Prior knowledge:
The structure holds two protein chains of two kinds. Chain A has 14 helices and eleven strands. Chain A is of the alpha/beta class. By secondary structure, chain B is mostly beta strands. Chain B has helices at 4-7, 10-15; strands at residues 17-21, 27-28, 44-48, 52-61, 74-81, 86-92, 104-114, 121-129. The longest helix of chain B has 6 residues, at 10-15. The mean pLDDT of chain B is 91. The interface between A and B is medium-sized, with 35 and 32 residues. Strand 5 (190-193) of chain A pairs antiparallel with strand 4 of chain B.
Amino acid sequence: MGQTKFGELWDVSFRQMMLEAGVRALEDAGIDGAHIDALYVGNMSGGQFIKQEHIASLIADHAGLVPLPSTRVEGACASGGLALRQAFISVASGIHDFVVAAGIEKMTDVLSEQATGALATAADQEWEVYAGATFPGLYALMARRHMYEFGTTEEEMAMVAVKNHHNACLNPCAQYHTEVTVEAVLRSPPVALPLKLLDCSPVTDGAACVVLAPAEEARKYTDTPVIIEGSGQASDTISLHSRSSLTTLKATVEAARIAYRMAGIEPKDVNLAEVHDCFTIAEIMAIEDLGFCRRGEGGKLTREGATQIGGSIPINTSGGLKGKGHPVGATGIAQAIEVVQQLRGEAGKRQVNGATVGLTHNVGGSGGTAVVHIFRRGD
Amino acid sequence: MAVPRFWREIPSRYNLIGSRCEKCNKVYFPPRYMCPQCRRVGKMLPHILKPRGKVITHTTIYAAASGFEEQVPYSLAIIELEEGPRILAQVTDCDPNDVKIGDEVEIIFRKLGEEGEEGVIYYGYKARKIEISNSS
């Protein structure tokens, strides 16, 4: 596994970023290009962000991996998680042995309004964006309803940002190394009320890469392999307004159910999770949908400190999308990297002591796609 | 965007024409071309929806979507129409921060936005609160 630093990487190009993450991943795995059988690359929108489609070929080409099969996987902000799942399926099927699962997004080559517009294409263009919807707007609609149904507060949402910025300060790869306070979040400029600027994840450049292999092969290269024990993916309506409930992402619930069943575990068995906190309310809903608390109690769990490092279920030890940054196509792979570092015991100041089981949760759009993976330390 | 992309949706956007499954009778808006419940067994028919509903949730947008910059702050809400379908629409003709969950609204025809000075002008529906008259 390997990744670039996340941030505004003006001095490096898309192809340089992907190579940097890929080389680090191969060095970490102790293999070289000759071992690799195939590549899956998560990327939401090379077309809109750098006017480059067909990035799978571009990456195989510049990595010197021609003629290996290389496939781009797209599921909006869940593209990385879906690439991981496709790589997992291709190894599990027996068709391939060593498979690269990568993710990349270069978002700062366009103006921030253009980046916002590009992200909005993950919503329904004809019936959401046409009416004036933005992504913060869609999550604000969920936040308002969550506040109405369960009494969740803006302070509890702010606490998600405070925690994730704190964790990001401990992560050398994170975009932000700045602490924020609840007051600063509450006072930050309104974006789509009740969400303010510091409730929102940033625009980020970044690439991330992991290598998958059959477990018995992996054991030849490392004493501490990390095993993917569960993988689940589900879909829901692309439009938020077409859903009967606005306070749960059914795709998350279903993807988690499948992944937990495959792994043969329950939510209480998970030691830490990287969840899709594109907005602070999204983390609160995710910890409910993943079963770490009851419906409506995500705000309470956050307020009580259970989701901090040292709490009963640390969430987003990497800093999450909020603090580490959210290069949309890379996020799902970067989540896996954080969990692998934690399970190997290599997370430094972010280390969750004794962690053996970790979970990743990656969402596309307002919940039209969700993918959940469960990892276990394999020694 | 080329003009056909807009005019082909005009019936639904101007007149709130959704679709109804002939088999299960469920009404959809925006229109669907296949009933998600009955799939190939169902047949979709046009259905004009009653332009009344209530606010399920809402937000006030300060960072506008492209083409809506001049309207900020604006209120955006999910509205449940009387016949069941939910739609996303701006709530207009009121202070955007004066919208509440449960507000009764009517759906009205309005200009939504435009593609610059020479591009397409978008029309469609917005919602307007129905004032409950308090005759005293």
